[in-house]
Design a protein that fits this description.
The structure is a single chain. By secondary structure, this protein is an alpha/beta fold. It has one domain: Uracil-DNA glycosylase-like domain (Uracil-DNA Glycosylase, subunit E), CATH 3.40.470. The chain contains 10 helices and 6 strands; from the N terminus they run H-E-E-H-H-E-H-E-H-H-E-E-H-H-H-H. It has a 6-stranded mixed sheet with strand order 1-3-2-4-6-5, with helices on both faces. Helix 1 runs antiparallel to helix 4. The chain is globular and about 45 Å long.
Amino acid sequence: MKPEEILKEIAEQTAVCTRCKLHHSRKNAVPGSGNPHASVMFIGEGPGFHENEQGLPFVGAAGQFLDELLTEAGLTREDVFITNVVKCRPPGNRDPQEDELEACKPFLERQIAAINPDVIVTLGRISMGYFINNGRISAIHGRSFWSGGRMAVPMYHPAAALHQPSLRDVVKEDFAKLPAYIKQAQDTRKNNTDLVLPTQEDPEEERDEGNAQQLSLF
């Protein structure tokens, strides 16, 4: 299946998903949006009120700041793909719980496999924890790491800068590094085939066909 087809299928599946209790308060699932062939994938923590209303990621105040950050990095929403570790809104914008993260994990794995980004930018400590173990975001934000054959860059969630204005310049400085990180990741993956995962096939299809080798990026 083509990336566009896989992402469409995931969107349809999340819209009716009942794997965890978050579906009880769901108005709209928020599977993610953007370029299915993006070099950069942003992964936040979970939809908020406005996202639940519209079914789109980062459409509130944090989303407006994210748009500003993307512009300053020379990017647009059409260039990147944006999603969250959970696709339905946690009540009261609380942190996603462990069972909710596990329930949504297959969707996120398939999205990453389909898009095959060079760089994954995690927004917030919860999405950071999917790729970097035992890290403190205050200590490692804006730094690059290799995880699952691609570059991962943990950053503060844009909402954190709205709640703590002192973080605004920090977040902007981290985003300013993105163009260089993208080039570095692309060059590294191009020159080191051992880092490139065979992600063009849908891992869901591989499981359906009884393939014992299951793709896992976490």
